[in-house]
Each structure stands twice: as structure tokens, then as C-alpha cells.
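agent> fetching stored inputs for the pyridoxal-5'-phosphate docking request
agent> found them:
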Amino acid sequence: MTSWQEMESKYYMSVVRRQPVVIVRGQGTMVWDESDKEYLDFTAGWAVNNLGHCHPAIVDAIRSQASTLMQTSNQFYTIPQLQLAEVLVEDSCLDKVFFSNSGAEANEGAVKLARKYGRRNRNGAHEVITAFNSFHGRTLAMVSATGQPHYQANWTPLPEGFVNVDYSDLEAIKGATNDKTCAVMLEPLQGEGGVNIPEEGYLQAVRDWCDENGLLLIFDEVQTGLGRLGTLWGHQAFNVEPDVMTLAKGLGGGVPIGAFLAKDHCAVLEPGDHGSTFGGNALTCAAANASTRFIVENDIPNRAKEMGNYLKQGLEALKDRHSFISDVRGMGLLLALEFGSEIAGKVVASCNDEGLLLNPVRPNAIRFMPPLTVNTQEIDAGLERLEHGILRAVAE
Ligand SMILES: Cc1ncc(COP(=O)(O)O)c(C=O)c1O
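agent> prediction call returned; pasting C-alpha cells
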């Protein structure tokens, strides 16, 4: 371990506070470190490996595509791109798609689309209302969109055109709407901001407000899409349709790909408006196509719902046993456990030792986002390791 840590500090920009674990391989819900220690991975690459590590459907698709065709420019048609476009459009309420390489880029594209829509339909309106505690990515514009001051402070002046308001507060959106507003961009459930569920009726009320005022409703489903909340798209859990939806993370099952999709009435981008060298490349699209079709054809979202309920029950039972656990929240397999004090870092460290990988989403909360293929035995084992880990952290 030490030599890899030394290499990291010598060669890599120290932008991430890493856990002291060097992961060398993975299979399903499990990963192994360089000394062959086994871990249950309840981080799943930050909600990316929705079918677990090295799922055969994805591995086979990558192998076969890698030996056939990996990259052409978007000057030409490629088949995996169109097959992926087909499954996403046919299985969603959206009509057209564009592929990017990451979630931040998907959101950038969605905002460009919204600005063009505003230019055409709302007299040049260009502002996008977003929420505090949201997370939309690390590009400069998405840092501006992300309503968390600590992500913004170092990068001023930030690109203009974003207004951050309280989440789950329709009045705040109403108050921020003016003749410059073209869209509202929200996560159906905030992930990185602490696993925050909106109040009942909020998303529908925002939908109605957007309809009344000619605004686009963009759902950032980078984290909630592809089954994570127990429905194929997170917005289906709330019965509210967006005009524009962005995806990444779980879309590629482990390869870097993002997407934004729009309904026909607002799919205003034209030749020359947008593009990407790698976006929609044959290799990543083949992986994403295999992963997405497996998720759809095997009703993985429903499995995520069942396993999510099972994990949540286990976490609730843990909360009943320990007074220092103050809250259990989330939907599907995007859950959080909150403590009465800021011990999340310590809990994650002691759970590493127990063989359970977790994410400290807030100083006082840990996030659970295992593969959607996790089973009850793995959840039971995870809960047992979690309880040991928490007790050790609390005793320190
Ligand atoms: C909701 C949401 N949007 C956007 C992003 C940014 O995605 P990426 O890191 O692929 O740029 C994330 C990443 O955590 C996210 O959770």
C-alpha cells in the first residue's frame, strides 16, 4: 500500500481525500485490494456500477466492440450509438438524445439547449434556477449551477445565468422567476447534497409552474437514472415528467458516458450548435447499450426497489438499536444514515477495516449506493459489518 500512496502524493494532484484502499479487481458487489482483502462495495463507483463490477453483459459488449471499432468522429454514423439512442428514447418520455462523456458535460449541453430555447421562445431568457445543496458537476458553469458555496468559493468569477434557491420550496422558485428565466434544473432526489427527498407534491408543483410560465424543467438524473431509485428514471417515482433529462454514472455501467435527452417540443439544437470528439463513441455506447438493455429487460429497477426496502429496513433496525443514529432516508438503493454528531469519516474508516466500502456524504451522514444487483445475503453481511464499524468508531 505505502508505495502506491507515495506514488499518488508524488505524481497525482491531491484533489481527492482518498480512503487508504488500493482496489485491484471487482466482481459483482465485491472488490479486492492488493493484498487480496475482500470488501463489499456499497459505493459502486459513486453510483456507477449499477450491474455490479465486471458484469458479463457489459464485459462481452466491450470485448466485442473493442476488437471491431472503438472511435470514429461523429461525422459518421455508428451502430452502437444509434442502438443506445433507441433504447433510451423508446423507454423514456423523451424524444431525442445527445451523448457526452460525463455528467457535468451532459448538464452543460442541457443548459445550452435551454438557453437556445429561451432565446427562441422567451425573448432571450437565459437564466436557469437551480437548488441549494444540488450537485451538477465540476465545470465552471456547473459549479455555478451547483448550489453549494464551498464548491464555488475558489472559482469566482463564476459564469452568470444561474440562480440558486432552496430545494423543495416552490415559493423560492416563484420568487426567482423573472423574464430572464428559461429553465428550472433539479435533481428529483438530491444525492451528493445529502440524499434529500423533496416534499410530497413539490416536483409536480414545479412542473405546473414551468408549464404556466413557459419554462423548461430539466431533471438532472445523473445519479438517480437507470434504476437507482427503484424506477428506471427517478422522476417516475414521483410521476412527474421533465422536458429535458440528463444522465451519466449508471448509464455506461462503468465506462465514461453521459447523455441529455429532450422532448421534441424543445429539442432545438441544430447542426453546429453542439458536439464532442468522444461523446457517443462506439466503445462506450456499446457498453452503455448492453448495460441499459440488461437493466430494462431484466427489470433491474424493481429489484433495486426490493433490495432498497430490505436495506432500509436493516438500517431502521440499526437506528432503533443505537441512539446516536438520528435518521435513515432515501429511496431505492440511494440511502443515507445520519448520526447525531460528525462521525461519518470515522465510521467510513472503521468500515474499511471491516470490509465494507461506504461514502461519507456529509460530515454526519454516510451514503449507501451498492450495485442494483446486490442480494439479501450481501446486504445482511454489509449491515453486520456496518454495525461493527459504527460501534468501533463511536468507542474511539
Ligand atoms: C446529480 C449529479 N449531477 C452531475 C454530476 C456530475 O457528474 P460527473 O462527475 O460525471 O461530471 C454528479 C456527480 O456526482 C451528480 O451526482
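agent> quick read of the result: Residues 300-321 form the longest helix (22 residues).
agent> awaiting further instructions
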